[in-house]
Amino acid sequence: MTRLTDFFGGNGTSSVTFTSTQNWTVPANITLIYVTAQAGGGGGGGSGTPGSTAGTGTSAKGSGGASGGNAGMLAMRIPVTVVQGQVVAATVGAGGAAGATGTVDVESDGGTGGDGTDSVVAIGANEIVRAQGGVGGIKGDYRNTQQNALAAITGGTVGWIASNFSAGASGGQNSITDTDGGASSKNLGRSALNGGADPSSYNNNEWGGAGGGGGHSLRANGGNGGEGTQSVDADGTAGAAGVFGAGGGGAGGAYADTTSLLRVGALGGVGGDGFVIIEF
User: Fold this and answer.
1) Burial class (CB in 10 A: 0-12, 13-18, 19+), 123
2) Per-residue pLDDT for 3 more than 60?
3) Which of its termini does the chain have fewer beta carbons within 10 Å around, N or C?
4) SS3 readout for 31-96
5) Cα 139 from chain centroid (whole Å)
């Protein structure tokens, strides 16, 4: 059994945790529950297939790194009045799909990461909590010229308690220069996590850019971004997967091949599935 007090300290309230969609029946003598829900995290963007220095394609630059995916929105300790025997339906949001690589041997961009899906808690037809899925990371392009920062999604709608909701932490920025991929933003005290490392001396346009880290969730850091590739004629580096509603890392870019063949980019990291905690 997992308790929120395991993360923050407190009075030892009993709880149940769901990492997949399930129902929970209110036991005897319980009239108030607190619901915490984190949606699925966004998948990291994928990196593209660059041209080559041998004249294949229009660009002789390595491909750009992709941005990390956002963490899913967090709904924190929403109070709900209940009666014995009521069935609470907890739908756990799925993590977003990994952003695709560019096409093999075709100068092409990578793919944007998939969005996570919502985590929803309901009693009968009455929806009591909905946390929105994290936004997928922005793709890396084939020319190593784009640089994107993915903003956190905003939350809140009529009936929600604004102070109990947190937008998912944003994924890190990709890199097209001599710097590491961007750090993920913080969420509820978790430290920021760097994205993938670019080469320490970025004096070669043929090298790939670094991927950004995925946004953090309540329970986990986001996936690491893939490193920018500096090895001659090497493919991109994949972003790491997120867990527990965290975002997947963005993929690192590929080297601009010195032959007529083209190096393919890499996949972003899959977003982490969400969770629901009921305290009683």
Assistant:
1) middle
2) no
3) N
4) CEEEEEEECCCCCCCCCCECCCCCCCCCCCCCCCCCCCCCCCCEEEEEEEECCCCCEEEEECCCCC
5) 13
